[in-house]
Amino acid sequence: MVDAAPADVTAAPSGHPGAAPVRHLPAYFLTRQGRHEAALPRFRLVDGYVDALPWRDWDDPAAVYCLWRDRAVKGARRG
Fold this sequence. Notes:
By secondary structure, the chain is mainly alpha-helical.
């Protein structure tokens, strides 16, 4: 599912209401899976917008977003 989501968003009509969360979730799950290099383009695509799943589920969405983005960056540097 993580690998299929970006292709699904690309195929969706412009402005589809489900597109934003589907752009964010792969960034989160790719990082959780240790696939940092693959997560970085996903983070770049959504950078600056944190009012989507999974970030909005925490008290401080921006801080959690930055935490996961930083994990992806650090993991890619090690990789």
